[in-house]
Amino acid sequence: MARSRFKLLLLLLCVLVIQKGHAHLIPSGNGALEVKDRSVSFLIGIPVSLIAEFDRNHNGFLDPEEMQQREEIFAKLNTVFRFTARNESVKLGRQELFASPIQEQSSAAPQFEWWVEYKLPASAAESLPLSLQIDSAFLSTRYNIQLTYGSLTEATVISPSHPQHVFLQNAWSTLLNYLQYGFEHILNGYDHIVFLLTLLSSGMTKRRWLWLLTSFTLAHGLTYGLSSLGFVSISPQIIEPFIALTIVLVGGMQLLNITIPLYRECLLVFGFGLIHGLGFASAMSNNMQGIKRFPIETIVGFNLGVECGQLFVALGLLMFMALFDAQKTVRLPLPMPKLLALIASVVGFYWLIERIFLN
Predict the structure, then answer these.
(1) Rounded to the nearest 10 degrees, what angle do helices 236-255 and 336-353 cross at?
(2) Contact at 8 Å (CB) between 263 and 214?
(3) In a domain, 174, yes or no
(4) 175 lies in a domain?
(5) Has residue 208 been placed in a domain?
(6) Can you tell me the distance from the alpha carbon of 16 to that of 288, in angstroms, rounded to the nearest whole number?
(7) Contact 275/243 with Cβ under 8 angstroms?
């Protein structure tokens, strides 16, 4: 028992050192798994809204009196978060709840921290992988989860479209997982989609599309790779306005009929892609730094996913333009590419102002 308490104290001390200056042990939406011997320690920051039924006074926080409902809260959490080892159930060990005082949470999202220890069966301790699943009905936020196993570190994002992740798999499974992340990153990033639609609509040729999409992907992959290796970490508050600015610039160039040679346009798009990639890299930097397990497969898979997402957006644009051309009765005040550029410029300018002054 004393050894178990010492391990818990050591884990919490490490988290406090990493998160120094923060009111919480770990930010909401982040989790840390540590595999050691035949046990797994799991610490995660969870929004209070996930267990709103235990917030009896409806103030958005877990007060000391409400924290007395520990057993009921534990029961709820263990139905939401399910952990298995090689498809075998694990034995539940100790659990703890932590909640910062309300005055310390005034500038942060209301949350609490849950620590739980799982005991691995002997067969699973000798043969991985390990699986974490979050009930999709409670995935109101994305969870960035990082696992440590000896000298290995693996990170993942669990989201409504990816509610389960299997850690410590082989290289092929890792590549497929990150291919999905890259694809979702493009489709869930509205600013990326607006940028791509505006860029591609100004000249719809296969050669131009291929070079521009490849340039954008390479730039994205470069910043993602640097973030994965721990070389890049920039605040989203700095990068997000620049992403909006790239949309304004691309839309403005099209509205002003500014054309440049393809090789220069590729260089420009590569630069813009670095900015867009930095937005994702900065958001993921806390989870992606220090990844040592299958780093090449992680980066390649993500880049392939980004490329697939971009091709999906391009095909959607191609189908939309074909359907529009077939409707001869529709009259617009501007040609469709110009209209898209105008809308993108307005939206991009709105995002620029919002991200500078309202964030």
Answers:
(1) 150
(2) no
(3) no
(4) no
(5) yes
(6) 19
(7) yes
DSSP 252: H
- Using DSSP's 3-state secondary structure scheme, residue 40 falls into strand
What span, in angstroms and rounded, lies between the C-alpha atoms of 229 and 219?
Answer: 16
| 237 and 107 within one domain | no
Is 262 contained in some domain? yes
- 297 in the same domain as 339: yes
pTM passes above 0.70: no
Domain that holds residue 83: 2-168
Taking the alpha carbons of 169, 172, 173, 176 in that order, is the dihedral positive or negative? Answer: positive
d(CA 128, CA 135): 22
Beta bridge partners of 82: 133
Phi, psi (5° rounding) for residue 341?
-65, -40
Sequence-ordered alpha helix ranges (H) in 161-294:
171-188, 190-201, 206-228, 236-255, 262-288
Same domain, 144 and 231: no
Q: How many Cβ atoms are within 10 Å of 349's Cβ, its own excluded?
A: 16
**Which tens digit of pLDDT belongs to each residue from 220-275?**
778 877 776 667 777 778 888 999 999 999 999 999 999 899 999 999 999 999 98
Owner of token pair 């539940």: 92
Query: How many domains does the chain divide into?
Result: 2
